[in-house]
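Notes from hallway chat w/ T.B., transcribed later so I don't forget. T.B. wanted the structure written out for a chain they're using in a teaching module, and asked if we could keep both sequence and structure tokens in one place. Agreed to drop them here.
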Amino acid sequence: MLGDMPRVTAAHIDRLAEAFAGTAEPPAAVVPVQAGRRGNPVLLNLRRLGPSIARLAGDHGAGPLLRGRPDILEIPGDPATALDIDTPDALAALGGDPAPTVGRSDRSG
């Protein structure tokens, strides 16, 4: 799952896959939309976008590749698809544990 989107679940991924599989002509991408804004996660069709994705550099994501394309399937999102947590403080404010669990032991002594 996405580390910076703690409320995205397997059900969100399932909805993207079901929407993609339910089309006669597979779209370039399936994108959740919440309150008029595109969110994440996004299902990308590598047959249509693979070469363009391979040319991406840095931490920009595929958003620029999707803008203005007529072959994007938008599906209803929900608040989880718009919630992006980028700092430990933001995660703590959400009620999450900002401390990593890998290598941490709950055993005492």
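Follow-up for T.B.: The longest helix spans residues 10-21. Might be a good example for the class.
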